[in-house]
From TrEMBL, chain A:
This is STAS domain-containing protein. Pfam families: STAS. It comes from Desulfotomaculum copahuensis. Residues 16-123 form the STAS domain. SUPFAM superfamilies: SpoIIaa-like. It comes from the Bacteria. GO terms for molecular function: anti-sigma factor antagonist activity.
UniProtKB/TrEMBL annotation, chain B:
This is HAMP domain-containing protein. It comes from the Bacteria. GO terms for molecular function: phosphatase activity. Keywords: Hydrolase, Membrane, Transmembrane, Transmembrane helix. Pfam families: SpoIIE. GO terms for biological process: signal transduction. One of its GO terms (cellular component) is membrane. The chain crosses the membrane at residues 12-35, 47-71, 106-124, 136-163, 192-214, 226-254, 400-418. Coiled coil: none annotated. Residues 250-301 form the HAMP domain.
């Protein structure tokens, strides 16, 4: 499934898209492009699923850039998941955004993993 | 400078069009005479061909001469433009009017010529062959022929209309804005109606000839000829229809191309006039767009003025200069990416000789961020001087801000309190960039770890205080994300490693010079104007460490 981002005006950045993969009890969202205010429409329409869909893992491998409006979108998404008592993880996050996530306090809400496998193991019921 | 052969090209185009129109007419009439009217080869050679070719040669010469005289102001204007000389208003207006009117006037002229020549032809035919001995059905045949010839003239006129408009688009583009868009109108609807009716009559009269006149004159319908003629008519109808449709399409494509060019180089507030090349529905659309653009440009100018005022107000919210801080030097710069921005910093005087520094960033850019920034600065100014710890101040401000902020909006703030004598610093961050602590004597600059949710996202957040010491000769820098997240043309981030490396020279450089160096470095990396606000506040403690020269104890921003 592809959810093209909205490119308002004359934005030159890469369009935001998201691909969903359900692997056992974990739902992976493969994010691609830039997460900015311009990707708000597609970001909010991402197939995040509901409480019954288990843990959510955001794959940042294809993400080039997240600005402050993008961070606001991420924070909103993570808070929504927390309200549903869903665990949220992240993989393939660059060193730069690991630092940023820490600075904006996202590390308290999202677990960082090194790989799909590690995330699956952490979120699979034992 | 325009190409000098513009008017020569227009002349050649006119001659070519006239010749093509006459050749098509000669061909169609001759074929019709031979295969439909039953004119023999001898009759063709002795009478019809000389008459038809003579008429057509006359048409070419007449059309070209009339066109050159009619378009004299256009040639004059093109010659002046090619030479890079100014064009007088009257000449430009006459050229523009002639360019708009020529296609329609020529259509009318050609139709009248067609009607006149048809009349002459049939009168001559009657005089030479049938006077006093009119054959049966002659009147019916002549009526059919006249209808065919007249509508053929109209459809050829439509060809001429379409091709002459193609030739005159360039002069109309070049003279846009030099004179008003005035002239005779032939709407797209009118053009379509004319060509449809013409083609309908041509086709009906041809079939009429086949189905009525052949049997009436005692001949059977020749199947092969009928098929060939039908295909020829089909081809002609398609080409004529396409020519008229393509003519209107060309105007629309021209507008679309110009709009795409404008969009690529879009500069809000700059008015760019689209060229009006037709006085029809498309021309009306372009004229309406141009009027709308003028209005939008006016609105942009007003908004720009208001933004400039807002920027002045916002600048007034930031401290003009830091007070003298014995033993310390403070310097700061904030450059908004747009006319107003969301970054801010402030100085807070506290009891017992302590002082506080605030740096923040309201999410987003432009007016919403600026309004949010102004509100938060006001609340922080009220709360910070009460003397609570930075974490307590941020918690209180967060609760106040949460109650008024709309969903998705937030503000990052870093608040640090300093004890000047000891160099002790207590800071708390609400989602702001971690400060950089730097040292004299070659020590590695470091990010001071501090992290928590920005203000405005969640009620009841507890922030943490972090305590550190600024050693003599060292200092601390507060900044906004615009600096570390500046991107070059390939999309690469300036990043923390590159940013931290710059601080190796921070202890040995004057505060203002260092800030200017960092800003220049980031702007050079980004290749021009930054996409986000850039703010950097530097605080250095006087004294030496490891032989480093201590900075002077003064403060400016």
């Amino acid at each position: 499934m592809l959810f093209p981002g909205y490119l308002g005006g004359f934005t030159v950045g890469r369009q935001f898209t998201c691909r969903v993969e359900k692997t056992g009890p974990v739902r992976f969202l493969r994010l691609d492009g830039e997460i900015t205010g311009e990707s708000e429409a597609s970001f909010k329409n991402m197939p995040v699923g509901g409480a019954a869909d288990g843990a959510l893992v955001l794959d940042f491998a294809g993400v080039d850039y997240i600005n402050s409006a993008g961070l606001a979108l991420l924070i909103g998404l993570i808070r929504r998941c927390r309200q549903e008592n869903r665990s949220v993880g992240a993989i393939n996050l660059s060193d730069h955004y690991r630092k940023i996530f820490h600075m904006v306090g996202l590390n308290d809400y999202i677990a960082l993993f090194e790989s799909d496998k590690q995330a699956r193991m952490a979120f699979s019921p034992h | 400078m325009l190409p000098v052969h513009l008017s020569r090209r227009l002349r050649a185009g006119l001659l070519y069009m006239a010749a093509a129109a006459a050749a098509v007419a000669a061909l169609v009439i001759s074929l019709s005479n031979s295969f439909l009217q039953g004119v023999t080869l001898e009759q063709q050679l002795n009478f019809y061909l000389p008459v038809v070719l003579g008429q057509c040669l006359f048409v070419v010469l007449a059309l070209y001469t009339i066109s050159v005289v009619y378009l004299k102001p256009v040639f004059g204007t093109l010659d002046l433009l090619s030479a890079g000389r100014p064009v007088a208003d009257e000449l430009a207006a006459a050229a523009r009017r002639a360019s708009f009117n020529y296609p329609l006037d020529m259509l009318i002229f050609l139709t009248l010529c067609g009607a006149g020549l048809s009349l002459i032809f049939h009168a001559a035919e009657w005089l030479f062959f049938y006077r006093g001995n009119i054959p049966a059905h002659w009147w019916v045949l002549t009526f059919q022929n006249a209808a065919f010839e007249l509508t053929l003239a109209v459809s050829l006129g439509m060809f001429y209309f379409a091709f002459s408009r193609r030739l005159l688009r360039e002069p109309l583009e070049l003279t846009t804005g030099l004179a008003p868009d005035e002239g005779k109108r032939l709407t797209v609807k009118g053009r379509l109606l004319l060509i449809i009716i013409s083609l309908f009559i041509i086709n009906v009269s041809s079939f009429f000839a086949f189905y009525l006149l052949f049997p009436l004159s005692g001949r059977s319908v020749p199947a092969g000829l009928y098929l060939a003629y039908t295909l020829l008519l089909l081809l002609y109808s398609m080409v004529a229809g396409l020519a008229v449709a393509a003519d209107t399409g060309a105007d629309i494509l021209l507008v679309a191309r110009r709009l795409a060019e404008m969009a690529r180089g879009a500069a809000p507030g700059r008015h760019q006039t689209l060229t009006v090349t037709s006085l029809d529905e498309v021309g009306d659309l372009v004229a309406a767009f141009n009027r709308l653009q003028q209005q939008v440009a006016r609105v942009y100018r007003n908004v720009d003025r208001e933004l400039a005022l807002a920027r002045a107000v916002q600048k007034g919210l930031l401290p003009r200069e830091f007070p003298a801080l014995p033993g310390w030097e403070a310097a700061a710069v904030s450059r908004p990416a747009r006319q107003v921005g969301g970054d801010f910093y402030d100085f807070v005087s506290l009891p017992e000789g302590r002082f506080g520094l605030l740096v923040g960033d309201a999410a987003g850019k432009g007016m919403p961020a600026a309004l949010l920034m102004a509100a938060v600065v006001g609340i922080l100014r009220a709360e910070a001087p009460r003397g609570d710890s930075p974490a307590a101040v941020l918690s209180k401000v967060n609760d106040l801000v949460c109650s008024v902020l709309a969903g998705g909006m937030f503000v990052t703030v870093l608040y640090a309190v300093f004890e000047p004598a000891s160099g002790r610093c207590t800071l708390a961050s609400a989602g702001h960039m971690s400060p950089v602590r730097f040292f004299a004597g070659g020590g590695e600059p470091e990010l001071v770890t501090a992290g928590a949710l920005p203000l405005g996202l969640e009620q009841g957040v507890t922030y943490r205080d972090t305590t550190l010491t600024i050693p003599p000769g060292g200092g601390i820098a507060f900044y906004s994300d615009g600096l570390v997240e500046a991107r070059d043309k390939s999309g690469e981030l300036f990043g923390f490693p590159r940013f931290l490396r710059l601080f190796h020279s921070a202890a040995a450089t004057g505060g203002e010079s260092f800030i200017a160096m960092v800003m220049d470095e980031v702007e050079r990396f980004a290749g021009g104007e930054p996409a986000d606000d850039l703010t950097l506040l530097l605080l250095r403690r006087a004294g030496t460490s490891g032989g480093e020269k201590s900075p002077p104890a003064s403060g400016r921003c």
